[in-house]
Every structure is written in structure tokens, then in C-alpha cells.
Amino acid sequence: MFYRTAGQFKTSYEADHALFPVRQDAILLGVILIFAFVIFPFTASEFAFRALLIPVLIYSLAALGLNILTGYAGQLSLGTGAFMGVGAYACYKLVSIFPEMNIVVAIALSGFFSAAIGVLFGLPSLRIKGFYLAIATLAAQFFLVWLFQKWAWLYNYNASGAIQVPNIDLFGITVAGPRATAMAQYYFVLCVVCAITFFAINITRGRIGRMWKAVRDMDIAAELVGINLMRTKLMAFFVSSYVVGIAGALFVFLWRGAAEANLFDIPLSFRVLFIAIIGGLGSILGNFLGAILIVALPVIISSVPGAFGIPVDSAMVEHLNIMIIGALIIAFLIIEPHGLARFWAMIREKFILWPFPH
Amino acid sequence: MNPRPDPNELTAPDDGIARGGVLLDVKNVSLSFGGVKAITDISLNVLKGEIRAIIGPNGAGKTSMLNVINGFYTPQEGTIIFRGKERRSMKPHQAVGQGIARTFQNVALFKGMSTLDNIMAGRSVRMKRNIGWQMLWHGPALREEIEHREKVEEIIDFLEIQHIRRTPVGKLPYGLQKRVELGRALAMEPTLLLLDEPMAGMNLEEKEDMSRFIIDVNQQRGTTIALIEHDMGVVMDLSDRVVVLDYGKKIADGPPDEVKNNQNVIDAYLGVPH
Ligand SMILES: Nc1ncnc2c1ncn2[C@@H]1O[C@H](COP(=O)(O)OP(=O)(O)O)[C@@H](O)[C@H]1O
Ligand SMILES: [Mg+2]
């Protein structure tokens, strides 16, 4: 009933290449966007913005970046956190050196720094694969975080060793720094995430996406259909690290407000990797589903039992959170490697057939 | 979705070599892996427009020969002249640029991708729109995508695989996978198509279909084909000329009837020790 594809015949390849060949998908997205742009902002509390909405968006973006590399191009990375750090520090230096620079421009440029570093650390992928490549990216992770600590120029020689986001205006509205309102920051992040998601969908469904997937599925055959492995892999590292870097800049400038080097350490890399795995490798939608789950889980654990009068202290929340995520990762790796996105695809399929299964 | 394509539109581009002229000339090629001699001093040629079969017992060096031709292996000795250009070594993607496409003995498809995407991937090198246009999708990138989609749909119609267009190829039965792999190679619009055991593991009906596709590709598109095949009946029916390898050496070369009655060939297939 909801998903009726009958009567929606495609009369041209153009229609077949539309973003939503099935009209109900477009309607559903429209509803989600109305919630995101109108309903949430007018109903959400300060807490909901800071603890749920903004982090969900930023983590989705980071996972999207990682998913381009790992899910689409098949190159495992354990250094996502450090690449987010490169984006954040680059943005910090840009706004320090050029205080007049528009924040959108600064964030867009900072992605190029992480992209360049990503390509550099992606070079080993030309020779090594799988586990060994993962170790190489782990080396990048350690090296970069060490650099964030030791290279005082990066944090403007602050005694604390931390970077502190100044107040930054965009069109007369403060979007970053202590004066910024949660709602302004939410809208900013939402717009950036929507734009990049749109671009990512287009790249992954066209020629470049097919080349990435070809390299992922069988690199020898990819080479023998004329795909240049080196260029294709490095392009994946570039695009992925660009998106990850943008996510890192947003992470600090539009959410945390301040950061120390160890914020970008391995736990962050793993959190983003878990989101991508739970959401579904090789899916765009999955990043959002995964981020919602990972960000909301601790909030649910700490608030739901409380509502029933069962007290849970914060250490308990932490432990439960880790245990549940661990169990979920194992479950997904064993049962459904394509993650939550596949569950949605199955539900959607049911709706299309409903009420006449087969 | 698409009317059956006019075969006249599908002919391969002219490269100045007349039908029957030498398209590929392999001269005195030797290839070894450590101590194992896979190919010993083999010379053979492929004429434009023909179907050339390479046969021989297991381990004879047939697959290695294809790997040499499309640049996957570099022979220790010998030269290869393709379309009049001589070379000792080149990268596989350069072979593609020169018009060589191939299929594999063990299907080498992109398992997670649909039939359509697999065949579209065969056109990657012909698509030029850069990432900036791809990001926007609408406009030039979409026009290019549709232009190539039309070519791919012609191949899908030709191979009669419309019903599996959206199916991930990993879920297809082996016979259909072989067909999709042929489709991907055809999408590259090769001058020379190399097929490594295209009918291995197929039943009789599937073999007949595949034979028909191979003949149609050769006749309608004018594509030159070099194929490895074990089924002697199929080889004799399909090919214009046959070369026989055994233990990495060439033991016979000529029209099917001649080769069939060659004593060396009979011995090799019967396993007479030598
Ligand atoms: N990559 C390789 N490394 C080592 N030996 C190989 C390799 N490829 C082929 N060979 C050897 O070369 C010989 C010919 O193999 P191949 O060309 O696959 O034979 P065919 O396709 O005729 O069955 C065999 O002895 C095989 O073991
Ligand atoms: Mg073989």
C-alpha cells in the first residue's frame, strides 16, 4: 500500500537514473527533511541538539567518509579519528591565520588538508591490502596524534595544548564559539551534511563509484577492464579523507568547541568504524542509521531505566554501552554484514510487495 | 526497454588492418615461473576477423598465453606485435586501451555489483566526465551515463540477460555469470576478444547459446576472437584456425580438420608419453 511501484513505468533511461525511481522514496525523504529542517529545530531542547541531533549528523558524515574508502573502495582504514583531527587542526589554523575568512570557506579548505594527508597515507594501499593496510593506517593514526601533541604551532602554543574555537559569525549569526546557539550550529551542520551527502550519492552511483566497487570486488579484473588501480585507490583516499576532514572540522567548530590531541585518538576511529559497520558498508543511508544508534544508545541507557525508577550511574551507562555495541558489532559481522541499511532494504521490499507477497 | 540493435551499428572501429590481415603476431615467446616453463618458444598469429582457438591438455600453457597477450605476464623472451605495434611488456590497462578485452577461466566478475553495473564498468575507460560533474550528476555526467547505458542495454538485449539486469552477479548461476562476463568484455568494444574457456562447466543448451553469441559477436561486430576451449566439438564448429599447445610447446597449427587428424595432437590428447 505504501510502496506501490505498479504503474510507475520508466519510459526513459533518464527516469531510470533518477535519484528515486520509486516515488515513495522521494516522499519519505521529503518527510525526513521536513522533520530535520522544521520540526526538530522547533521542538528540540538544548540538550537534544547537543547530545543527539548535532553529533548524529557529524558522526554520520565521518562514517560516510570512511564508508567511501572502506565500503565502496574496499580499503580498510583505522585512522579515521586522526584524519578528522587533520581537518580540525587545519580549520583552526586557517581561522587563526585568516580571521576574516568565511567559516564555510575555511571548513571547505580544511578538507583538502586531510585529503592530501589521506592520499599520502593511502600510498601503501598500492602495494598492500587488507590487514596490512589496516596496520599502515593505524601507524598514521599514532603518528598524527603524536604530531597534534608535539607540534605546538598547530594549537597556537596555547599553554593548555588544546584548541579553543573563537566566536565566528556567518551572515551576522554566530555559528561557532561560546556565543553560538545550538540551533544555529544545528542548521549549519545540517546544511553541510545534506550537501556532502548529495554529492556522495552522485559520485558513488556513477562511473567513479563503479570503479571503486570494481576495485573492492576484484582488483585484478578491474585492472583488466582498463581501470587504473593506483588512480582509483588514491581518489578514494582523497575523497574519503576530504569528507572525514570536514567532519573533523565540524566536530570541533560546530559541536565540541574545544579539542585536545587525544580526542582524535583510536577510540574516535573505532567509533566511526563501528557506525559504518553497524550501519552497513557500501551504503550511504547506513551511516545515518548507524550514527543514530551509536549516539542515541548511551542517552537511552541513561534515561530509560531512570524513567522506571531504576538508578544507573554514569560508569554503569558506559559499561552497558560498550557491551551492547560490542555485541551488536559481532552480531552484524556474523548475521548481516550489510548492516542496518540492509534491514531497511528488506523492510522496503516487503512494503513494495505488500499485501501480495509473491 | 530497447529495440533489438541494428547489427550494422555495432561493427568495431576500423584500425587500418584489412580483414584477414595479421592483427596479432606473437613471435618466439617464452615464459617461465622460477623453474616452471609455462611457454617455450611459441609463435602464433591471429588474423583480423577470425575465430582462433587455442587448445591443449591441462597445464599446456593456454591461459599463460592469454596472460602474455593482454599484458598480465611479461615473457622473458619474444615479442608481440599488435595492430602493427611491437612491444615487450605493458600494463593490462594499456592493453585495454589498445583494444584487447578478455574473460577468465574462473569467472572474475565484480560480485557485489549488479549485472548492469558490471557491464557498465566495462565502459569506465570510455567515460570522461570528471568528479566535479559526477558530484552534480545532472547535466553532462548524466548525459554521458545515459549514452553509455544505451550501449550497455544493446549488449544486455544481445545476450538476452534483461531479466537479471538488477541482480547482484554473485547470486547468479555460473552459466549466467559467464554470460555477464562476456557482456562486460563486449562493453569494452574490443578489437581482439580473448575468451578463456567460455563454456567450461556449462550444460549442452548453455554451450549452444554461448556458441551462438560468440559467432554473432564475430560476424555482426566483426570482433576478432581468440578462445581457449576444451570441448573439441565446439572448437571444431566455431573456429577458423586452431593452435594446439602441449607442455608449453606448439605442436600443431592450422584449420580444424587438419589439426584433428594430426598425429601429435592425437597423441597429446590420448596421453601418449613423449
Ligand atoms: N602464476 C603462476 N605461477 C607459477 N606457475 C604458473 C603460474 N601460472 C601458470 N603456471 C604454470 O604454468 C603452466 C601452464 O599453466 P596454464 O597456462 O594455466 O595452463 P592451461 O591454461 O593450459 O591449463 C602450469 O604448469 C602452471 O602450473
Ligand atoms: Mg587455463
Summarize the structure.
With 358 residues, chain A is mainly alpha-helical. Chain A has helices at 13-16, 23-43, 46-72, 80-97, 103-122, 130-150, 182-205, 207-217, 219-224, 229-256, 266-279, 285-307, 314-335, 339-353; strands at 163-164, 168-170, 173-176, 258-259.
CATH architectural category of the domain at 21-264 in chain A: Orthogonal Bundle
Mean pLDDT, all residues of chain B: 86
CATH class of the domain at 43-112 and 168-270 in chain B: Alpha Beta
How would the global form of chain A be characterised?
A: globular
In one word, what is the shape of chain B? Answer: globular
Structural class of chain B: alpha/beta
Major sheet size, sense and barrel closure of chain A: 2 strands, antiparallel
Helical content class of chain B? 25-40%
Number of distinct helices of chain A: 14
Order of helices and strands of chain B: EEEHEEHEHHHHEHEHEEHH
CATH topology of the domain at 43-112 and 168-270 in chain B: Rossmann fold
The CATH homologous superfamily name of the domain at 43-112 and 168-270 in chain B equals P-loop containing nucleotide triphosphate hydrolases
Share of residues in strands of chain A: under 5%
Q: What is the alpha-carbon Rg of chain A in Å?
A: 21 Å
Strand count, sense and barrel status of the largest sheet of chain B are:
6 strands, mixed
User: What is the annotated CATH architecture of the domain at 43-112 and 168-270 in chain B?
Assistant: 3-Layer(aba) Sandwich
Structure description:
Chain A: Keywords: Cell membrane, Membrane, Transmembrane, Transmembrane helix. The complex is a heterodimer of chains A (358) and B (274). Chain A has a domain at 21-264: ABC transporter involved in vitamin B12 uptake, BtuC (Orthogonal Bundle). Chain A contains 14 helices and four strands. Chain A has helices at residues 13-16, 23-43, 46-72, 80-97, 103-122, 130-150, 182-205, 207-217, 219-224, 229-256, 266-279, 285-307, 314-335, 339-353, and strands at residues 163-164, 168-170, 173-176, 258-259. In chain A, the strands form two sheets. Chain A has a two-stranded antiparallel ribbon. A two-stranded antiparallel ribbon of chain A has the order 2-3. In chain A, helix 7 packs across helix 8 and helix 8 (207-217) packs across helix 10 (229-256). The model of chain A has no long low-confidence stretch (mean pLDDT 87). Chain B is of the alpha/beta class. Chain B has a domain at 43-112 and 168-270: P-loop containing nucleotide triphosphate hydrolases (Rossmann fold). In chain B, strands 6-7-8-3-9-10 form a six-stranded mixed beta sheet, with helices on both faces. Chain B is globular. The termini of chain B are far apart. The model of chain B is unreliable at 1-12 (pLDDT under 50). The chains are: A mainly alpha (358), B alpha/beta (274). The site of adenosine-5'-diphosphate has 11 residues of chain B, from strand 2 and helix 1.
